[in-house]
Amino acid sequence: MRFYFSILTLFFFFSAFAQEEVVEKKVVDSLYREDQFYLNFTYNSLKNLNGINQNKFSSGFCIGFLRDMPINKNRTIAIAAGLGYSLNIYNDNLYQNRLEVAGKTENTYEILSSDIYYDKNKTSLNYLDLPIEFRWRSSTPDSHRFWRIYTGFKLSYLIGDRYKFVNDVQTKVYKSNTDLNKFQYGCYMAAGWNTWNFYAYYGLSPIYKSAKINGEDIKMTTFNLGLQFYIL
C-alpha cells in the first residue's frame, strides 16, 4: 500500500508541475496584426454654408473592416486599408423641390426663412467607403490595450440618398438626386486608448456638384466629430 501511495503522490506532483509549466509558457505571436472592425458615431457640421443654417442634430454612423499591414520590426507602425459603410444625416434649412420641365427632372433649391414652419427638412446620404490609413500604436505581442494615433484618407461612393420635408400641410420625399456628388473624399484621424478613440473627418469635396441657389453654386462640405471604436 505504501508503494502505491508513493506512486500516486509522485503522479500528482509531476502532473501539477507539468500544468504549471504549461501555464507559464504563454504563446506569444510576434507576427501579430491589428486587423480590426471599426464603428463610429459622429456629429456632422456643415461648412461653406453661404446662408444655409443647420438645425437640430445632424448625426453620422460608420462601420467597416481594416486590414493591418505592419511595416517595422516591432509592429508598432503599420498601414491599413479596408472597406466600410457610412450614413450621414443633415438637418438644415435648404429646401429642395423637384419639377418636370420638358420631360426632364429639374431640382430647385431655396433657403427656408425663419418664419416658415416645418417639422423636418432632412437629407440622408449612404456611402460605400474605402479608407486607407497610416498607424502608430504602443502595442505589444501580448497586449491589446494600447495608445494609438491613426491618420488616413477616405474615398466614399454614394450608393443612396433621401430628402424628406414635413410640415403641417405636406410631406415630400425625394431620392436619387443627380445634383449630388457621387464621390466624396477627405482626411480623418482616430486617436485614443484601447477601445475608446476620438474621431475627426474633414471633407475635401463638396456634397453637391451642380446645385445652385440664385445662380450660385452650393459648395457645402462636412466636418464630422465623434467617437470611434475598434473591435478585434
Q: What are its keywords?
A:
single chain; 232 residues; mainly beta; 8-stranded antiparallel barrel; two-stranded antiparallel sheet; 13 strands; elongated; Porin family protein; Beta-barrel_OMP_2; signal
Outline the secondary-structure elements.
Elements: H1 2-24, E1 36-47, E2 59-70, E3 77-91, E4 94-101, E5 104-111, E6 120-137, E7 147-166, E8 171-175, E9 183-193, E10 196-203, E11 212-213, E12 216-217, E13 221-231
Q: How would you characterize the overall build of this protein?
A:
- The chain has one helix at residues 2-24, and strands at 36-47, 59-70, 77-91, 94-101, 104-111, 120-137, 147-166, 171-175, 183-193, 196-203, 212-213, 216-217, 221-231.
- The protein is mostly beta strands and 232 residues long.
- The chain has one domain (35-231): Porin (Beta Barrel).
- The strands form three sheets. An eight-stranded antiparallel β-barrel has the order 1-2-3-6-7-9-10-13. A two-stranded antiparallel sheet has the order 4-5. A two-stranded antiparallel sheet has the order 11-12.
- A hairpin with a 6-residue loop joins strand 2 (59-70) and strand 3.
- The model is unreliable at 10-24 (pLDDT under 50).
- This is Porin family protein.
- Pfam families: OMP_b-brl_2 (PF13568).
- Residues 17-208 form the Outer membrane protein beta-barrel domain.
- Keywords: Signal.
